[in-house]
Automatic annotation (TrEMBL):
One of its GO terms (cellular component) is BLOC-1 complex. This is Biogenesis of lysosome-related organelles complex 1 subunit 1. Pfam families: GCN5L1. It comes from the Eukaryota. PANTHER family: BIOGENESIS OF LYSOSOME-RELATED ORGANELLES COMPLEX 1 SUBUNIT 1 (PTHR13073:SF0), BLOC-1 COMPLEX SUBUNIT 1 (PTHR13073). Belongs to the BLOC1S1 family. Signal peptide: none annotated. GO terms for biological process: endosomal transport.
Length: 136
């Protein structure tokens, strides 16, 4: 009986080994396929992340560039405004000086007019006194 079992056992063992070897090979192939798919998915995810990153940077840079352009424009307009203010300040100072001169002249005219009134009053007083002096 032992002799009869040996060829069957050897044949069954070989079939089992072949089946196991086939399972191992299939597992190895599936593992390789999964590994390749995982690697492709990683690469795709990395490309997608880089694209998103580039888009975000472009969006932020676009906003920064617009801010930079606006800042330059505001600086230019601020300089122009300062120039205009300086010109108006100079003109205002000139008008103030002219107004002060006019006020001084008007004051002098007022003083002269007052002096003339006093002189007129004095002349009338002298004219009135002359006939009185002449009579006496």
């Amino acid at each position: 009986m032992d002799g009869a079992k040996t060829p069957l056992a050897a044949g069954g063992k070989r079939e089992l080994e072949e089946a196991l070897l086939h399972i191992i090979q299939r597992h190895h192939h599936q593992s390789l396929r999964q590994s390749q798919q995982t690697e492709r998915a990683k690469k795709d995810a990395l490309r997608s992340a880089l694209r998103v990153s580039d888009l975000l940077v472009d969006t932020v840079d676009g906003g920064v560039q617009e801010l930079f352009v606006n800042e330059k424009r505001i600086e230019h307009e601020a300089r122009a405004l300062l120039t205009t203010i300086a010109r108006y300040r100079k003109q205002t100072d000139q008008w103030l000086a002219a107004t002060n001169e006019i006020n001084s002249v008007l004051k002098e005219i007022g003083d002269f007019e007052n002096w003339m009134k006093i002189m007129g009053f004095d002349c009338k007083s002298i004219n009135a006194a002359i006939p009185n002096i002449h009579r006496s």
